[in-house]
């Protein structure tokens, strides 16, 4: 009796729990289109309760997936839905999961996956229909939601891929007067999707617009009445789109005046009503939290601003749509529509560059999401599947025949070898294997020793390169401190030029410029002292660039020439070269400066270029004193520019480096011509860049001439086929017309490239004159080119028409209504292939037992055992790993089922045991060696990669720093020389400062761009403390760990042997430091902070009461040395001392 009572009590509790779970899920669903946070709250509450009771919680998972879809957390939504598909047998929830996966695939343009889930959903619907009378009332309601949602999602997908009729048919499966009336949210969804456009059919556009507006108004009214802010916003957005066009707006307002007064709650003018509705919709969707629809609302609001010509507001809306949440990049169709509208708005504000960029992005997205990619992929997959099936069938049949023949041949061979067999021969393979194994072990040991030696050497190189890299970074950091000083100098010169200050103020400004020049000179002196010239590879950044940009920089630096009384003449050029831009500027400056030094006052230096078919020759010519023949022959053997050795010899080295890169640079050369008393000419050659520009111009000229010839012909298409023509003549005429249309389309393309958009429109008209309506590809091309030209010419109607034609035709051309059949065919193909292979493999498997039972079992059992031992020996001498050999021998070691004598059994067992024992011993030793070798090889590869990367980086940085130093170090002194407190040299100072600023900016930026990420490890920390030890006169400072938290460690390093005054301590980590090692220490700590994103890291000096220096170091905790490690370093240092 007690047992019965307990069962009834437990059953009652379980029933109440199920009711509570259903109630929580119903609440979660009720908030789907009201509040996403509430939907998530009740779903999670239901899921926790389901988990605690051990019952099915997949309905809660589906509700959570709905929230993730709305927030565009697509990866999380997919994970939740896959969890549903694998954790339950509830067909209704599985159906809902399939439908939500369809929605996810539609948003992400995954066309094939969409049809796979659609097929699965249709199968589940048929299965549920067969058992619908067994559904509980709760799941009967869920089924109403699932049916209507399936049709709505399918209709939405078909509409966006251009299958309009399929979209209409899918939505027509919903009976608006049927069971959907029990679910207000789904009824609102149905009304919105009908009213949104593309579904309603009528005699004219006016009737279509009116019917769609009626559906949207119905959705709006009931969503307000039943508190569905999502559908209220969607309805307002749909009505906004209908009210944007002035003519359509006037018609709808005239015929729906009461409704307009009702929705116009802010009493906006008619022209602003669409924007008001869109703004209200945007605000409601923003509060609701649907990321996808928020972006769509921004797009709609931008359209409203577009129609009232408020382009800046439209641009702001579209940028907000793209930038407010980057998750929308997961929806290519939505992003494509925003990009297309951006191109329109940028064109309206005459921003051609951004307009073209967004137009190209829009076209790229159309290409990436086109459906015929699925057609191509599945056609190839079907062919591949068919070929694989045929090959498998042929291979299995061939194997059956081959095995049958081999069985007979082997039997004959066995018969012949039985009489010659001896047991002694079974041990010979083991002896051979042992000798081979000993040789292999010796070779492996030698290889391991070499690896260890290489690893040690490479680790030392890596350690050196890493430390050098840190020093290079510190040098660049020092070089970058000059940039603000140059900026201040430039600003002061600008104020001197533009302001009418008092003489006292102007005198102070000149004094400040002089002080800045002195400071820069001081920094340059530090940098010069620090940088050591290193021989290495020159880092080249090859690009095509206009030579005139470098000539402009050279011409701006003519002050040095004027001060010496020399006229610098830089001839304009249209040439484009392919080379390293910075090094090319260096070569021109070096040769020009060389000419200035050896040209007397009153002379002339001319910089020019000459272009040939293969190269551009850049020359610097002067009328100075010239050189003798013997001097000219060695001009590139030593330095002629004076100073620091980075002159003509290095120019020659750069040219030689170009020649080693590629055959493109085989034209590179450098040479000199000179005559005593008449001057010199130095020139170098570089390959041409962007040759296609010439070809493009030729094509445009040819196309223009061709168009003029065609326009001069009489009206009418002479190539149009007529009824009087024969079949052959019609074919010829059609081909000629197509060729003419294609030429005009090409001309339109090149005209757009040239920027003659009005000409493009004329080419487009001529193209349409010859165009055949069935030539889809050509229509797509000319529509796109016309749209681009109309966009540039601000002919919006023409643009809208051609872009609509392009988009619609592109979608129709790539639309795919055969994917469902394809999925079914693929499934059938896979099934048929598997069945055929199973049957043939079964037939192949039957051959062996048939042969055995009919013939082979009558063979001598002893001979079979010997064959097995021979097989073991073959395995032993094979190239397989020892583990596979032993596994094969163990598999063959089964002789108990054969009837042989005791003596024969003992002999065979002894041989097999010796083989097994030898293999086991070899496997144990090999495993240990392989583990050691793998670790050593992996470590060596890592070291090689890190070392090579750092070596290249150090070489490039070394080159950049050398270039920066030698190209800019003289300018501060020249500026300081010109500053005399008066305005006499103000113009010269301005030119020199501007040139210095531009040159230093280019070179320092290139140096910064060469910096690569640095791995923070124990070596870097060791380097820091070694530097501190060296700075402390060879004694390791006493390091105390003062403070630590989750991220940082604060340490105090007592530099007991380093005694400084307050000024020296204050400047310890500045360019005025007493020891450059401290700048490297500062760079190490800075890099630690950069790499770990912990910005608090730093190193600061202070003085102890005893006058010693104390360094407070803040480091990331995860790379800071432990207190025991610091103590070990200190003890090791003391022992060494």
Give a nutshell description of this structure.
The protein is of the alpha+beta class.
User: What is the name of the CATH class of the domain at 290-417?
Assistant: Mainly Alpha
Major sheet strand order: 2-4-5-7-6
| Category by helix and strand content | alpha+beta
pLDDT < 50 stretches: 1-14, 372-377, 532-537, 639-646, 691-721
Residues in helix, %: over 70%
Distance between the termini: 91 Å
> How many extended strands?
11
Write down the overall geometry: globular
Which CATH-level-2 architecture of the domain at 290-417? Alpha Horseshoe
CATH H level, superfamily name of the domain at 290-417: Tetratricopeptide repeat domain
Number of distinct helices: 42
Query: Radius of gyration from the CA trace?
Result: 42 Å
Summed over residues and divided by their number, the pLDDT gives a mean of: 79
Predict the CATH topology of the domain at 290-417. Serine Threonine Protein Phosphatase 5, Tetratricopeptide repeat
Enzyme class: transferase
Pfam family, one: DUF5112
GO molecular function: ATP binding; phosphorelay response regulator activity; protein histidine kinase activity; protein kinase activator activity
Domain Histidine kinase: 477-690
């Amino acid at each position: 009796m007690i047992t019965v009572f307990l069962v009834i009590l437990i059953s009652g509790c379980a029933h109440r729990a199920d009711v509570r779970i259903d109630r929580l899920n119903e609440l979660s669903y009720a908030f789907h289109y009201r509040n996403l946070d509430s939907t998530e709250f009740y779903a999670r509450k239901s899921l926790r309760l389901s988990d605690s009771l051990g019952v099915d919680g997949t309905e809660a998972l589906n509700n959570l997936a709905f929230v993730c879809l709305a927030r565009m957390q697509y990866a999380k939504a997919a994970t939740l839905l896959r969890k549903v598909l694998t954790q339950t047998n509830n067909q209704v929830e599985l159906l809902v999961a399939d439908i939500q996966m369809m929605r996810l695939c539609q948003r992400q343009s995954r066309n094939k996956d969409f049809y796979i889930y659609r097929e699965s959903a249709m199968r589940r619907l048929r299965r549920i229909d067969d058992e619908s009378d067994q559904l509980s009332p709760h799941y009967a309601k869920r089924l109403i939601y699932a049916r209507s949602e399936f049709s709505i999602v399918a209709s939405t997908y078909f509409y966006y891929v251009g299958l309009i009729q399929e979209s209409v048919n899918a939505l027509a499966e919903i009976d608006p007067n049927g069971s959907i009336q029990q679910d207000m949210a789904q009824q609102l969804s149905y009304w919105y999707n009908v009213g949104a456009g593309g579904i309603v059919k009528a005699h004219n556009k006016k009737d279509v617009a009116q019917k769609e507006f009626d559906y949207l108004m119905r959705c709006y009214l009931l969503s307000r009445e039943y508190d569905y802010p999502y559908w209220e916003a969607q309805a307002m957005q749909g009505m906004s789109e209908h009210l944007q066009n002035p003519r359509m707006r006037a018609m709808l307002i005239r015929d729906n005046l009461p409704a307009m007064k009702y929705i116009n709650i802010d009493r906006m003018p008619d022209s602003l009503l669409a924007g008001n509705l869109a703004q209200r919709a945007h605000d409601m969707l923003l509060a609701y939290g649907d990321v996808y629809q928020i972006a769509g609302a921004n797009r709609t609001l931008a359209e409203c601003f577009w129609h009232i010509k408020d382009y800046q507001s439209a641009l702001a809306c579209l940028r907000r749509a793209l930038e407010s949440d980057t998750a929308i990049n997961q929806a290519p169709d939505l992003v494509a529509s925003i990009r297309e509208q951006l191109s329109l708005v940028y064109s309206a504000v005459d921003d051609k560059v951004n307009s073209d960029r967004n137009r190209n992005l829009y076209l790229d997205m159309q290409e990436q999401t086109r459906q015929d990619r699925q057609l191509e992929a599945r056609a190839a997959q079907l062919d591949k599947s068919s070929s694989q099936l045929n090959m498998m069938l042929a291979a299995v049949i061939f194997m059956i025949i081959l095995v049958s023949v081999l069985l007979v041949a082997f039997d004959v061979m066995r018969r012949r070898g039985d009489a010659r067999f001896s047991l002694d021969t079974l041990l010979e393979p083991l002896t051979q294997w042992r000798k081979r194994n000993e040789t292999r072990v010796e070779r492996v040991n030698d290889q391991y020793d070499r690896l260890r030696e290489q690893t040690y050497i490479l680790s030392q190189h890596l350690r050196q390169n890493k430390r050098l890299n840190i020093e290079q970074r510190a040098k660049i950091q020092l070089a970058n401190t000059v940039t603000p000083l140059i900026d201040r100098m430039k600003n002061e010169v600008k104020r001197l030029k533009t302001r009418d200050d008092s003489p006292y103020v102007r005198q102070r400004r000149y004094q400040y410029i002089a002080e800045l020049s002195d400071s820069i000179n001081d920094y340059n002196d530090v940098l010069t002292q620090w940088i050591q010239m290193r021989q290495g590879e020159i880092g080249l950044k090859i690009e095509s660039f206009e030579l005139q940009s470098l000539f402009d920089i050279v011409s701006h630096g003519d002050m040095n020439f004027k001060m010496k009384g020399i006229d610098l003449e830089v001839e304009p050029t249209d040439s484009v070269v392919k080379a390293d831009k910075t090094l090319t500027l260096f070569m021109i400056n070096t040769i020009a400066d060389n000419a200035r030094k050896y040209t007397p006052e009153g002379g002339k230096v001319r910089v020019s270029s000459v272009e040939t078919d293969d190269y551009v020759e850049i020359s610097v010519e002067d009328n100075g004193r010239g050189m003798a023949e013997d001097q000219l022959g060695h001009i590139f053997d030593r330095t002629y520019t004076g100073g620091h050795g980075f002159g003509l010899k290095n120019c020659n080295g750069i040219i030689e480096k170009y020649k080693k890169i590629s055959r493109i640079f085989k034209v590179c050369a450098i040479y000199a011509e000179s005559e005593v008393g008449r001057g010199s000419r130095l020139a170098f050659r570089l390959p041409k860049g962007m040759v296609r520009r010439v070809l493009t111009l030729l094509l445009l000229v040819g196309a223009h001439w061709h168009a003029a010839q065609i326009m001069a012909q009489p009206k009418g298409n002479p190539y149009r086929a007529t009824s009087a023509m024969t079949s052959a003549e019609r074919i010829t005429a059609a081909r000629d017309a197509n060729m003419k249309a294609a030429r005009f389309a090409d001309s339109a393309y090149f005209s757009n490239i040239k920027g003659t958009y009005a000409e493009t429109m004329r080419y487009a008209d001529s193209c349409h004159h010859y165009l055949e309506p069935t030539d889809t590809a050509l229509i797509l091309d000319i529509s796109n080119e016309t749209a681009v030209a109309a966009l540039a010419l601000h002919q919006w109607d023409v643009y809208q028409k051609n872009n609509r034609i392009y988009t619609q035709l592109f979608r129709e051309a790539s639309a795919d209504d055969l994917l469902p059949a394809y999925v079914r065919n693929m499934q059938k193909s896979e099934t048929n292939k598997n069945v055929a292979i199973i049957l043939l493999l079964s037939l192949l498997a039957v051959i062996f037992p048939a042969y055995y039972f009919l013939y082979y079992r009558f063979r001598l059992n002893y001979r079979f055992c010997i064959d097995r031992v021979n097989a073991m020996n073959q395995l032993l001498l094979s190239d397989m790993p020892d583990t596979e050999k032993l596994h094969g021998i163990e598999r063959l070691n089964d002789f108990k089922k054969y009837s042989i004598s005791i003596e024969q059994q003992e002999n065979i067992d002894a041989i097999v045991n010796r083989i097994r024992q030898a293999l086991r011993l070899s496997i144990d030793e090999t495993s240990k060696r392989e583990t050691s070798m793998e670790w050593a090889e992996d470590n060596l590869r890592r070291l090689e990669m890190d070392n090579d990367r750092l070596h290249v980086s150090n070489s490039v940085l070394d080159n950049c720093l050398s270039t920066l130093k030698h190209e800019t170090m003289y300018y501060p002194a020249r500026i300081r020389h010109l500053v005399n407190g008066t305005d006499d040299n103000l113009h010269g100072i301005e030119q020199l400062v501007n040139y210095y600023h531009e040159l230093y900016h280019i070179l320092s930026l290139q140096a910064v761009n060469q910096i690569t990420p640095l791995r923070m490890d124990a070596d870097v920390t060791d380097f820091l403390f070694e530097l501190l030890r060296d700075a402390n006169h060879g004694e390791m400072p006493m390091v105390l760990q003062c403070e630590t938290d989750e991220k940082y460690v604060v340490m105090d390093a007592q530099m007991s042997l380093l005694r400084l005054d307050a000024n020296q301590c204050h400047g310890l980590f500045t360019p005025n430091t007493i020891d450059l090692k401290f700048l490297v220490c500062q760079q190490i700590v800075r890099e630690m902070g950069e790499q770990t994103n912990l910005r608090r890291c730093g190193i600061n000096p202070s003085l102890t009461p005893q006058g010693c220096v104390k360094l407070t170091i803040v480091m990331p905790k995860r790379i800071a040395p432990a207190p025991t490690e610091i103590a070990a370093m200190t003890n090791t240092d003391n022992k060494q001392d």
